[in-house]
Amino acid sequence: MRGRARDGSRSTAEVSMAAERKTKLSKNLLRMKFMQRGLDSETKKQLEEEEKKIISEEHWYLDLPELKEKESFIIEEQSFLLCEDLLYGRMSFRGFNPEVEKLMLQMNAKNKAEEVEDETVELDVSDEEMARRYETLVGTIGKKFAKKRDRANYEEDENGDIKPNKSKKTFLKPQD
Amino acid sequence: MAEAAGVAAESLVGGRARAACTVLNQVVLPGEELLLPEQEDAEGPGGTGERLRLNAGARPRVRVVCGPGLRRCGDRLLVTKCGRLRHKEPGGSGGGVYWVDSQQKRYVPVKGDHVIGIVTAKSGDIFKVDVGGSEPASLSYLAFEGATKRNRPNVQVGDLVYGQFVVANKDMEPEMVCIDSCGRANGMGVIGQDGLLFKVTLGLIRKLLAPDCEIIQEVGKLYPLEIVFGMNGRIWVKAKTVQQTLILANILEACEHMTADQRKQIFSRLAES
């Protein structure tokens, strides 16, 4: 590559030196990167312009007026479900198909009163109970994540609860 | 009815759009233009509404849903089906829903509709299902509850399936599934053995599925039975005996063109026998 570049600079030198000798390099050659160092600004501009022209000629675009889609306040909806509050399409009566009967109640109730159902959902475990439960778990789970060396620090107190013992073991100076 | 049709025809000749709220529960014809309450104010008495309407956007706009039988065309609302114009008041904010209550037999698949289909072919991963539309719908074998690649659902050609559309538009083949978005069947899938399938008009299906339909309530008191309604105009019925099944099918078919009194008579006679 470098050898080539040197060749190029030499050839441009030749061109500038002997322009009157009418040895012209082709445009494609002049457009190459390594040739442009030696070019004067005028020819550079000319080449750039030509390149732009080629690009713009090859560039395709749609000859259409700009679309101005306004936000519409009419929404199209082709389903009757939204318009008429239709029931669920499967029905069973007088215990012919108990499964469907159960499903029917469930599906038709869903349409009618969704909000009411939400309110009546009972909590299996109250928040207070949950908090109390996790209180005792703090130590146990803490122990799980502690390193082996620290595990000994979790000492059981008289209640049987495990509590993290924060005091670090330090060297105790032996008494004389 | 005839009077209403006359008015509709008149307005067509005049070529003027009518306000939607003035033709509620009246007959509208395809090609007619409707004006929504928001547009109506701008429609001055001088007929210069077209120009005035352009600067009506300053007011806060409410969203209006146009249902089956209506089409939005730019800012205009056009009627595409013949029937009575219906309106539902909005639950919260918004302008409610307008639609045309029409009588028709031809079913056009609509996304979200629950339909009864007949499996016509089994080809590789999908079933072809006849739903009464212009084109058979496709149904993937994975679109059943509990189906996996290894565990294929037991569906044979000729089976009836109850499912809903997930893809339904004018450019693409409709696609059905037999599960909801959570992957549960919820009553969809292959409909059991025996029973009788028959076709009725699409209007009757909607009439029967209306929450306050007394026909279904009466029918339910007769004897143990099971019914499946497809929005594509198909009804599947089953009772303990063939005779009971046939009676049921006949009642449902016949009650479309009966008055409330006639229906009462029929049901009382049936209850006696």
UniProtKB/TrEMBL annotation, chain A:
Disordered, as annotated region: 1-20, 149-176
Chain intervals with Basic residues compositional bias: 165-176
Pfam families found in the cross-reference section: MPP6 (PF10175)
One GO term (biological process): maturation of 5.8S rRNA
InterPro entries the UniProt entry points to: MPP6 (IPR019324)
Name this polypeptide is given: M-phase phosphoprotein 6
TrEMBL record, chain B:
UniProt key word RNA-binding: yes
Keyword list, A-Z: Acetylation, Cytoplasm, Exosome, Isopeptide bond, Nucleus, RNA-binding, rRNA processing, Ubl conjugation
Membrane-spanning parts: none
Annotated localization: Cytoplasm; Nucleus, Nucleolus
Location of the K Homology domain: 195-243
GO-annotated molecular function: RNA binding
Database matches in InterPro entries: Exosome_RNA_bind1/RRP40/RRP4 (IPR026699), KH_dom_type_1 (IPR004088), KH_dom_type_1_sf (IPR036612), NA-bd_OB-fold (IPR012340), RRP40_KH-I (IPR049469), RRP40_N (IPR048541), Rrp40_S1 (IPR037319)
BP term (GO), one: poly(A)-dependent snoRNA 3'-end processing
All residue ranges annotated as the Exosome complex component RRP40 N-terminal domain in the record: 26-103
GO CC terms, sorted: cytoplasmic exosome (RNase complex); nuclear exosome (RNase complex); nucleolus
Endpoints of the signal sequence: none
Quaternary data: Component of the RNA exosome core complex (Exo-9), composed of EXOSC1, EXOSC2, EXOSC3, EXOSC4, EXOSC5, EXOSC6, EXOSC7, EXOSC8 and EXOSC9; within the complex interacts with EXOSC5 and EXOSC9. The catalytically inactive RNA exosome core complex (Exo-9) associates with the catalytic subunit EXOSC10/RRP6. Exo-9 may associate with DIS3 to form the nucleolar exosome complex, or DIS3L to form the cytoplasmic exosome complex. Exo-9 is formed by a hexameric base ring consisting of the heterodimers EXOSC4-EXOSC9, EXOSC5-EXOSC8 and EXOSC6-EXOSC7, and a cap ring consisting of EXOSC1, EXOSC2 and EXOSC3.
Record family assignment: Belongs to the RRP40 family.
Protein's recorded name: Exosome complex component RRP40
Annotated source species: Rousettus aegyptiacus
Taxon lineage: Eukaryota, Metazoa, Chordata, Craniata, Vertebrata
